[in-house]
């Protein structure tokens, strides 16, 4: 087919990003290529080192590891059996090892990474560790790969911070090929709209905890990823569009025979990508400016999680690419919204997958010139392969052309007939700072709110004010501050959504402005989140007072206040001492002291400007 020209805005953003990243990307690739030229690292291990690396292996595996001729793959897993999304991974290592051996390689479980669930920790002290866990996972991945025993990696992760952490960590070993192995979503349960209705009734005191738990349990009911389109499923979609999953593999349910076939094929692909076989481009070469921007476009077109305005920036920087929120904002102005998946619609990810899913989304974006087609993927060069869907024919895995048209226009639309002409994420700016708004779930009539501020330094104080009726019958902008990464780890504040939804449904004009997060489940209430500079580092939110007129205009991209903040002293403070202890929080004091701002990925890993800065001390500017 004739070559489709890139959309001019995507072309311009790509050019700017490539120029901006020239020094840092060059420095990163120099490290990757230098590591690659030295060949498989275990070939240089001393005998005692190598013996430690296969001491527990048995029989032919030990013999082959000693010979060092076959590629050895690291399995890095986020398995635990408490969390539904990661429970299936308990059965994966023997399956992957068998498939790797059949493909001519070897595999060892190199290590595990922690996997915590924001759904469990929502509104709890443990949530203050959630964002930090991404960087812990990156470090854990690096530790797993640090033994120099491996020629490639199989990464097992699904949810919020796990996939970004695995990718950031793996990019430190960017000379190795890497394949991500998804586990799939749970089957559809209680419709999301009904779950949201019961949550709101509970917030109003109209149903009790028993009814609420029944609804939640009917929604989150089996192994697999939660089915709403939050950060976990945004992760899966982005990894596929980045070419790091097998085509069509992200949303196949755990108990489907196709899931097992895809898992085995992922292992075989990883073997074939090693230096001992076809020496395909390794991970660090693959994840370049074009791949990062493809992920941004897919996030916007699908109405994905606002958490990725943090994660994609951090991932990009791990590969030497200096992605900014301005890049996202420029793309959002021209990337159409093509999916309606809860909380942006009534459907869940299973409905999205059945309607054509990622394959159709990639097809229509490619045809509109809104994705880079000339990128490397784990199945070869070119993103067009990701318009195909996997099927089993007589028990054998193969791929066929995916749907050329959406099978449900209420869930998934072509780029020529979108739900909205622009993407689902907006960047807002003003005297209060710079933040992000997920507009895809917010009705147009609710995207502009101008009302007096009500200031809270803790989400629990807001919920107490709601329960006491202090928010009834008034328009307000809830300013929830000291929730940024340096203050308390930037917890999700999704527990505020039902209460704010109640006020909005009563006809009140309501919005939230915060330096915290609202997650991929950000709902129908307009929320300017990730506001930076954060209050704990002297941001303007620290000088807002009750009654100040705050205006959030998501469509215009503005966040303003009618007050002279320059001559005010800050009020309130981030938690400290005993308030920042318990539930393991005191162990992360060093993270609070070194974490970067939200618009730089809220990472503890600062980005060196160029090769000369690689040894610079790790301090927050």
Could you walk me through the main structural features you see in this protein, from its secondary elements to its overall organization?
- The chain is 35% helix and 14% strand.
- By secondary structure, the protein is an alpha/beta fold.
- It has 2 domains: 9-17 and 45-187 and 222-401, no CATH class; 425-567, IlvD/EDD C-terminal domain-like (Glucose Oxidase, domain 1).
- The strands form 4 sheets. An 8-stranded mixed β-sheet has the order 9-10-14-13-12-11-15-16.
- Strand 9 and strand 10 (433-438) form a beta hairpin.
- Helix 5 (92-102) packs across helix 12 and helix 11 crosses helix 14.
- The longest helix has 16 residues, at 22-37.
- It is globular.
- The protein starts with 7 loop residues before the first helix and ends in a 27-residue tail after the last helix.
- Mean pLDDT is 91; it is low at 616-621.
**How many domains?**
2
**Uncertain ranges:** 616-621
Radius of gyration: 24 Å
Shape: globular
> Oligomeric state of the chains?
single chain
Number of helices: 22
Strand arrangement within the widest β-sheet reads 9-10-14-13-12-11-15-16
Based on DSSP secondary structure assignment, what is the total number of beta strands?
16
What's the pLDDT, averaged over the residues?
Answer: 91
Strand content: 5-15%
* Helical content (DSSP H or I, runs of 4+): 25-40%
Largest sheet: 8 strands, mixed
Measured distance between first and last alpha carbons: 50 Å
The secondary-structure class comes to alpha/beta
């Amino acid at each position: 087919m004739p070559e489709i020209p890139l959309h001019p805005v995507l072309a311009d953003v790509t050019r700017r990003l490539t120029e901006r990243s020239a020094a840092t990307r060059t420095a990163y690739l120099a490290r990757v290529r230098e590591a690659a030229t030295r060949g498989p690292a275990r070939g240089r291990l001393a005998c005692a080192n190598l013996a430690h690396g296969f001491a527990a292996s048995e029989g032919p595996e030990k013999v082959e590891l000693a010979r060092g001729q076959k590629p050895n793959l690291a399995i890095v897993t986020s398995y635990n059996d408490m969390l539904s999304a990661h429970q299936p991974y308990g059965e994966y290592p023997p399956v992957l090892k068998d498939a790797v051996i059949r493909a001519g390689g070897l595999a060892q479980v190199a290590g595990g990474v922690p996997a915590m669930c924001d759904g469990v920790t929502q509104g709890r002290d443990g949530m203050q560790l959630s964002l930090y866990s991404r960087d812990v996972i990156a470090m854990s991945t690096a530790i797993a790969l640090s033994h120099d025993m491996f020629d490639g990696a199989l990464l097992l992760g699904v949810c919020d911070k796990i996939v970004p952490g695995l990718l950031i960590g793996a990019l430190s070993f960017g000379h190795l090929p890497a394949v991500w192995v998804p586990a799939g979503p749970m089957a559809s349960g209680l419709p999301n709209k009904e779950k949201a209705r019961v949550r709101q009734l509970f917030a109003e005191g109209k149903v009790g905890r028993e009814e609420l738990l029944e609804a939640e349990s009917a929604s989150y009911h089996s192994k697999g990823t939660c089915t709403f389109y939050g950060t976990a499923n945004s992760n899966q979609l982005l990894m596929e569009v980045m070419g790091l999953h097998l085509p069509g593999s992200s949303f196949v349910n755990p108990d489907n025979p196709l899931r097992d076939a895809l898992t085995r094929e992922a292992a075989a692909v990883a073997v074939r990508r090693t230096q001992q076989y076809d020496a395909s481009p390794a991970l660090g070469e693959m994840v370049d400016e074009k791949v990062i921007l493809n992920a941004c476009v897919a996030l916007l077109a699908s109405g994905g999680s606002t958490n990725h305005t943090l994660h994609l920036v951090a991932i990009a920087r791990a590969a030497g690419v200096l992605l900014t929120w301005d890049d996202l904002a420029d793309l959002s102005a021209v990337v159409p919204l093509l999916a309606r998946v809860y909380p942006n619609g009534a459907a869940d990810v299973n409905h999205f997958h059945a309607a054509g899913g990622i394959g159709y989304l990639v097809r229509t974006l490619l045809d509109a010139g809104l994705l880079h087609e000339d990128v490397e993927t784990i199945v070869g060069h070119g993103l067009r392969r990701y318009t195909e869907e996997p099927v089993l024919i007589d028990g054998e895995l193969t791929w066929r052309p995916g749907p050329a048209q959406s099978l449900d226009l209420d869930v998934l639309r072509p780029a020529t007939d979108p739900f909205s002409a622009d993407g689902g994420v907006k960047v807002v700016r003003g005297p209060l700072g710079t933040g992000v708004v997920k507009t895809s779930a917010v009705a147009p009539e609710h995207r502009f709110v101008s009302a007096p501020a009500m200031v809270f330094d803790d989400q629990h104080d807001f919920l107490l004010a709601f329960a006491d009726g202090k928010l009834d019958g008034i328009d307000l902008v809830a300013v929830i501050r000291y929730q940024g990464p340096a203050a308390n780890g930037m917890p999700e504040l999704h527990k505020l959504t039902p209460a704010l939804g109640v006020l909005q449904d009563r006809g009140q004009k309501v919005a939230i402005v915060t330096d915290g997060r609202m997650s991929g489940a950000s709902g129908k209430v307009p929320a300017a989140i990730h506001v930076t500079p954060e209050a704990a580092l002297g941001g303007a939110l620290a000088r807002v007072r009750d009654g100040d007129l705050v205006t959030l205009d998501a469509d215009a991209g503005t966040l303003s206040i009618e007050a002279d903040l320059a001559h005010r002293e800050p009020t309130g403070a981030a938690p400290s001492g005993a308030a920042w202890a318990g539930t393991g929080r005191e162990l992360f004091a060093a993270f609070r002291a070194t974490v970067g701002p939200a618009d730089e990925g809220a990472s503890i890993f600062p980005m060196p400007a160029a090769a000369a800065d690689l040894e610079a001390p790790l301090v927050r500017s």
